[in-house]
């Protein structure tokens, strides 16, 4: 299999899993979904005495997802504040008000 074929297969897999080309407003929901899956998997792994490396990997992934979620939330809050602080109509000089 050529490198181009492998690249195509990887991109198709990512697209099928909806991990690429996610609409911006879908990110928070997708992050929550992935976090739930990761939490479930971590719960399974914690019941076993094996798979220490996988536990660490899943825990690290959860931390990364939480930071991403917080960043998106902060960005959304800043965007909302920016819109709400702008007047709906342009300010007029006091001497030109009707």
Key attributes of the depicted protein:
98 residues; single chain; mainly alpha; flat; 3 helices
Description of the molecule:
The protein is mainly α and 98 residues long. It has a domain at 24-82. It is 69% helix and 0% strand. It has three helices and no strands. It is flat and about 50 Å long. Mean pLDDT is 78; it is low at 88-98.
Most strands sheet: none
Cα Rg:
22 Å
End-to-end separation: 74 Å
Can you tell me the overall shape? Answer: flat
- Number of helical elements: 3
Could you estimate the helical fraction of the residues in percent? 55-70%
H and E string: HHH
Would you count the extended β strands for me? 0
Strand percentage lies at under 5%
State the secondary-structure class: mainly alpha
Low-confidence stretches: 88-98
- pLDDT averaged over residues: 78
């Amino acid at each position: 299999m050529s490198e181009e074929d492998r690249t195509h297969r990887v991109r198709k897999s990512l697209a099928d899993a909806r991990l690429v080309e996610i609409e911006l407003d879908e990110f928070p929901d997708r992050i929550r979904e992935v976090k739930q899956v990761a939490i479930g998997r971590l719960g399974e792994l914690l019941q076993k005495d094996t798979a220490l490396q996988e536990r660490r990997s899943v825990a690290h992934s959860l931390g990364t997802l939480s930071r991403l979620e917080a960043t998106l939330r902060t960005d959304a809050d800043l965007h909302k504040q920016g819109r709400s602080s702008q007047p709906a109509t342009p300010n007029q000089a006091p001497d030109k008000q009707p």
